[in-house]
Amino acid sequence: MEPVSLRFKKSNKFMENIKNEVAFFNELVAEIEKKDKLHSKKINGNISYIKEHFPAQLDELLGLVKAYFDNLGLDSVRVASDYLKMIKDMRTEGLYFYKHGKYRCDNQYIANEYVYSKPEIMSYYMNALLVSQVMWKHHFNIFMYFQSHLKTLFKSKSKLSILDIGPGHGFFSYLVKKEFPDYEKIDIVDISDTSLEMTKKIIGFDDEKINYTKKDIFDYDDSNKYDFIVLGEVLEHLDEPKQILIKLSKLLKPSGLLWITTPTNSPALDHVYLFKTKEEVLLLISESGLVTVDSCNYFAEDVDEQTALKNKITNLVGLFCKNI
Ligand SMILES: C[S@@+](CC[C@H](N)C(=O)[O-])C[C@H]1O[C@@H](n2cnc3c(N)ncnc32)[C@H](O)[C@@H]1O
């Protein structure tokens, strides 16, 4: 057993880390408030909710976020500025969406030309998206829903083989890894080097069971079969989301499960496929030969469901599905 002095030292270090993360988070929020009062009002409400309902989980994910920015040498002023650039983009895309009833970016090739292939955009955009994972209530709620359902859905199974496509922040794989430490492997596939680098820096340290592959998922070998596949916020980036679902159904083991998240009515620089309702997402799942096992959804604004639907408020849908 570990000597008490060592455990004490470790817990001191743990407390020190949490203090640093909280300080970084507070600085970030203060910096956002200085530059954008309106937006800060919105995120302060979100943050209070997250702190009240999931304090320990917030500290944990904040640890990953802070370590990532430390690794890049970015301070809270720079991160706040990156985040607010994305908010500005979202307002511009939102204006177009509410005027024309569609996303401005017509297809995935345009998204590639104007976003993915532009390092000057990708660098602030990816940092901003990472921040949103710990500041937006609907993002946080979906992680918590995911985590709480993992144990019941995979009851006795611990040696899971996992495929995570386009993981970005990697939080879903991080949570699976935590719930099932004896997992067999996590294969991570992304079409973008920049994105893979981000995932590696956030969850990839010291783990020989995580494999990274730069590939278009459509070119991925079908002879690989998985217990669990994660597809977080990818569908809305594709021209034909049904095709990826058909591909993933081939990569599932007979008893395998697929976790999907995708937002409805969510104008952004690189969103091309518009889901108008949760029902449209569920319909696409069944049209692709899959059956939904359990689902959730979280609106991005604090309004009742009727108002949210009427005003086309972003709704983040999450679901577990399997082959029929
Ligand atoms: C918005 S990020 C998703 C981040 C994270 N999974 C989440 O839930 O927020 C979408 C990711 O999908 C990747 N991607 C898009 N099309 C892909 C494809 N055909 N094959 C593999 N990765 C793809 C992108 O490079 C990007 O990293």
What does this structure look like?
- This protein folds into 2 domains: 4-135, no CATH class; 140-323, Vaccinia Virus protein VP39 (Rossmann fold, 3-Layer(aba) Sandwich), CATH 3.40.50.150.
- Helices cover 56% and strands 17% of the residues.
- The chain is built from 12 helices and 7 strands.
- It has helices spanning 4-35, 37-53, 55-72, 76-100, 108-116, 119-135, 137-153, 171-179, 193-203, 241-251, 278-287, 305-310; strands at 161-165, 185-190, 210-214, 226-232, 252-264, 290-299, 315-323.
- The model has no long low-confidence stretch (mean pLDDT 93).
- The structure holds S-adenosylmethionine.
- S-adenosylmethionine is lined by residues 165-169, 189-192, 195, 216-218, 232-234, 237, 261.
- S-adenosylmethionine binds at residues 165-169, 189-192, 195, 216-218, 232-234, 237, 261.
